[in-house]
Design goal:
Blueprint: H1 13-31, E1 34-45, E2 49-52, E3 64-68, E4 74-80, E5 91-99, E6 104-107, E7 111-116, E8 122-126, E9 130-133, E10 142-148, E11 151-154, E12 160-161, E13 163-170, E14 173-187, E15 196-200, E16 204-206, E17 209-211, E18 216-228
Antiparallel strand pairs: 1-18, 2-3, 3-4, 4-5, 5-14, 6-12, 6-16, 7-8, 7-15, 9-11, 9-14, 10-11, 13-14, 15-18, 16-17
């Protein structure tokens, strides 16, 4: 039996263009494809809060919550009581406070209270420091040794001024951003893998008026979600 060999003659460009087009289309399909993902996270719950995701492009579980305060000040928090590595049994809580120009805020104390809603155990944890930019602390006692890329470590009860700054141009006009301060707490003194707990923040003073927080609840959730493959 004779084997036939096929030869391409003439202009080879159309074939190459077709091959390139198929590759680009395949790549585009992959880039927007989604896949099921096991989600293991702590869902924040607050009566006047709005939850959202910290994942790529806003995908993933709603593991953060934004709480609007007064005078345009906003608080965003997240927390967890688990770790992928069993050797590091740390409780984690982070919060950022943003405020527009013309406002100031400060915590009334440096202590937060964590309550296990299942066993009623409680832990008191100190806020070690606030991180903010130099322009937000005109009268604060800053630690010069902690200066890094324009950020300062200040005492937790420092008065912080809000700052509105220009970000970038969009099709709908200029986009502005507010800045303020942030805290991040890691503690190995709290029991590992709490399933249902609450965080009580100290009250915050905004332009001389005190705002008292409700306890922010965090519930351990495990579910199946859909995330983009390109994240």
């Amino acid at each position: 039996m004779r084997t036939k060999v096929l030869y391409f003659k003439g202009n080879f460009a159309p074939y190459m263009l077709l091959k390139k087009g198929v590759f680009i289309i395949s790549l585009s399909i992959i880039s927007v494809s989604c896949a099921p993902v096991v989600r293991d996270y702590y869902k924040p719950i607050y009566s006047e809060g709005v939850t959202h995701s910290s994942g790529c492009g806003g995908s993933g579980p709603s593991d953060k919550i934004s709480i609007s305060l007064s005078e345009g000040v906003e608080l965003e928090v997240s927390s967890s009581s688990s770790a992928k590595n069993e050797r590091f049994k740390n409780f984690h809580f982070s919060a950022s406070i943003i405020a527009p120009s013309g406002t100031y805020f400060q915590f009334s104390s440096d202590e937060i209270l964590i309550s296990d809603n299942t066993t009623n155990k409680t832990w008191s944890v100190k806020i070690a420091e606030l991180i903010t930019r130099a322009e937000n602390i005109p009268n604060a006692n800053s630690d010069e040794s902690a200066k890094n890329d324009g950020y300062f470590s200040v005492i937790p009860t420092s008065k912080i001024t809000g700052n509105t700054f220009f970000g970038y141009n969009t099709l709908f006009g200029k986009k502005y951003f507010n800045s303020g301060a942030s805290i991040s707490i890691f503690s190995s003194d709290i029991e590992y893998k709490l399933e249902d707990y609450s965080v009580q923040l100290p009250s915050i003073i905004i332009n001389g008026k005190k705002y008292i927080f409700e306890p922010i609840r965090f519930l351990h959730v495990r579910s199946i979600g859909i995330d983009p493959l390109n994240c």
